[in-house]
């Protein structure tokens, strides 16, 4: 057990072998002292007993100096009537975990490996439908990371200048009592290409889950294409009663101002399927097995729920098909 020494009457608490969780609230910074390697376990839901997480069930202004937070400072920041346990839980859940440089580097390496493995399993070569090795994915991400900083600054500078210019125009218009329509409203074209924002990759962090960071990495790889990549398609089995396959449904218009088009339930379902593997009618049920882009799966599910009232079903057979069926 790590040692703790309380010096009275100054209430200075000295702790050893400690991990700190720090949260800035208002204008003050509050800290709690935790046992090493227990905070992440608690946040992941594996550890539920606070006694196994906290070295001292108290709130500090500075753990390393043993400076306990005064009650008036706590109430000013968190509000009156909030219990000490609630404050500790907020710091524990939302605060930033302070660890040593060695531990931080090890955690970054672990998250980096996990992100690369997730990405390698979800992206494929668009032509061969085969996955890349983790080494190739890692090199592609490193390339994006080295380009991310300057690209981000340039994009931010461009957008900031545009926003400031627009703000000045609006301010001037407000002072004169008139409205100044934008170039887009006037239908003016100055020949300049509209800048399109592309997601960037600046490397992993320990503040977000590997899964969410892998999604960001995939978006950046697809947007910038340092190597040819595409999301691996999902393989679905879609079943629907034949009695409703020919029912007419309204389809969204192709462009603004046009009348909604009409089509059958079957036509609409097949419009989501990039490649049909098999389709057959068995008794009173139609079945289709095929490949769908991940981005279309949610829209397909919404259509099935609303237009067929849940009588049709889309079952995921494979979350990420990484190679064409022979």
Automatic annotation (TrEMBL):
Domain annotation Ribosome maturation protein SDO1/SBDS C-terminal: ranges: 249-319
GO cellular component terms, A-Z: cytoplasm; nucleus
Region (Disordered): 144-208
Location, primary (coarse class): cytoplasm
Keywords: Cytoplasm, Nucleus, Ribosome biogenesis
Composition bias, Polar residues: 168-187
Record localization: Cytoplasm; Nucleus
Protein name as annotated: Shwachman-Bodian-Diamond syndrome protein
Source species taxonomy: Eukaryota, Fungi, Dikarya, Ascomycota, Pezizomycotina
């Amino acid at each position: 057990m790590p040692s703790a020494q309380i010096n009275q009457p100054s209430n200075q608490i000295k702790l050893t072998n400690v991990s700190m969780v720090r949260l800035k609230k208002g204008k003050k910074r509050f800290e709690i002292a935790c046992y090493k390697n227990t905070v992440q376990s608690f946040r992941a839901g594996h550890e539920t007993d606070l006694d196994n997480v906290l070295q001292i069930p108290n709130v500090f202004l500075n753990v390393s100096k043993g400076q306990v937070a005064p009650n008036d400072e706590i109430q000013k920041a968190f509000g009156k009537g909030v219990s000490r346990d609630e404050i500790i839980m907020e710091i524990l859940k939302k605060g930033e975990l302070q660890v040593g440089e060695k531990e931080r580097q090890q955690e970054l390496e672990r998250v980096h490996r996990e992100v690369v493995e997730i990405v390698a399993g979800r992206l494929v070569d668009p032509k061969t439908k085969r996955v890349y090795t983790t080494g190739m994915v890692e090199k592609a991400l490193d390339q994006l990371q080295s380009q991310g900083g300057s690209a981000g600054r340039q994009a931010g500078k461009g957008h900031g200048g545009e926003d400031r210019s627009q703000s000045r125009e609006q301010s001037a218009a407000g002072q004169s009592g008139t409205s100044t329509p934008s170039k887009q409203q006037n239908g003016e074209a100055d020949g300049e290409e509209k800048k399109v924002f592309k997601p960037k990759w600046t490397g992993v962090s320990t503040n977000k889950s590997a899964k969410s960071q892998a999604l960001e990495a995939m978006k950046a790889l697809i947007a910038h294409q340092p190597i040819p990549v595409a999301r691996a398609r999902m393989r679905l089995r879609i079943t629907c009663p034949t009695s409703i396959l020919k029912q007419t449904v309204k389809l969204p218009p192709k462009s603004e101002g046009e009348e909604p088009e009409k089509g059958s339930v079957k036509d609409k379902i097949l419009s989501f399927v990039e490649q049909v593997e098999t389709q057959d009618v068995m008794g009173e049920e139609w079945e289709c097995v095929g490949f769908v882009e991940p981005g279309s799966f949610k829209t397909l599910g919404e259509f099935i729920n609303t237009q067929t009232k849940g009588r049709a079903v889309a079952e995921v057979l494979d979350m990420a098909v990484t190679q064409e069926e022979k």
